[in-house]
Amino acid sequence: MGWRSRVTGAAVDLFSHAPDPLVATFDYPGDPGLFGPESVTWRIMSDCSTFVGGVRALLVQAAHPEVAAGVGDHSSYRADPLGRLSRTASYVTATAYGSLPEVDNAVGLVQRLHRPVAGTSHRGRSYSAGDPTMAAWVHNALVDSFLVAHRTYGPKRLTDAEADAYVAEQCLLGRRMGADPLPDTAVSLQRWLVEHPSLGASPAGTDAIGFLSGPPLAPLVRMAYRIIHDAAAATIPDPILEVLDVRPPRGSVARGHMLVRFLRAALGFSPAWAAALERCGIQRPPGVRFRNAPGTTR
Fold first, then answer.
1. CA distances for 172 relative to 33, 41, 61, 111, 193, angstroms
2. Is the pLDDT of residue 177 over 90?
3. Do residues 253 and 279 touch, judged by C-beta distance below 8 A?
4. 29-to-56, 79, 270, 281 alpha-carbon distances in Å
């Protein structure tokens, strides 16, 4: 087995603990989904820099005590970390690349799972996953993190106009999720997160941050994950890093660049992107390597 196959097998295994969210995508020919082939979203979400963005989003989300309490009180991330990872990845894949029925199915599933998530944080504030402001923190942290990760570790430079277009596109998804407010430019989005009045340390946030620093993974995967974790932390603005009490080591960005380039060479670009293009009747772009054959989604 070649090195590409070994790396691909290890990466795919991490995300194989949930059903394929695009299993029926070819039943919707011509459906561009929420964003479509010309969107910046399809470009950003196709790259391995999303691995960094995903970890960054979880770290940023932990800086909101009520969001962290909801995760700590109701999530199975400790008992079933790969299951939670796979379910999150399925939501991201379905909403980015799915047909509209698949997008709505993914959004509806998350909303049903979040319906019972309610309680009180350590500082006595009530929380509910159905609260538009809490949904906004989760959604906006995810959008900002994928954007910043791509601008830092992606294969091609994004212009400011492209970054703003991506954030505006993601507002379409945020509104479907019932999130509010939804900043619609890259600068206003990051400012909203950094200046958010609810930022603060919390026991639940500390637990999540500790878990994210060293989840139970096989040794070689754990080494790669630690590089991704530090590369993600190194892109978080200082005010949020101070709340998290996370200090990425020197050289984290350089190591992140090397690992993401290696993963890109091994994995190619997202098979979901290739499947979505095929669903829309569009040929795969020349010079872009995908690991999945035509007619398949993984």
1. 11, 11, 20, 16, 19
2. yes
3. no
4. 34, 39, 19, 8
What pLDDT score was predicted for residue 1? 58
What is the tens place of the pLDDT at every residue in 219-278? 989 999 999 999 999 999 999 999 999 999 999 999 999 999 999 999 999 999 999 999
Whether this model's pTM surpasses 0.85:
yes
* Cβ–Cβ < 8 Å for 59, 246: yes
Place of tokens 């993984």: 298
- What is the pLDDT averaged over residues 59-84? 92
Question: Closest Cα to residue 262, out of 15, 3, 1?
Answer: 3
Q: Name beta bridge partners: 290.
A: 269
Q: What is the mean pLDDT of residues 130-149?
A: 98
Distance CA 173, CA 103 (A): 9
Neighbouring CB atoms inside 10 A of 286's CB total 5
Query: Hey, how many other C-beta atoms are within 10 angstroms of the C-beta on 175?
Result: 12
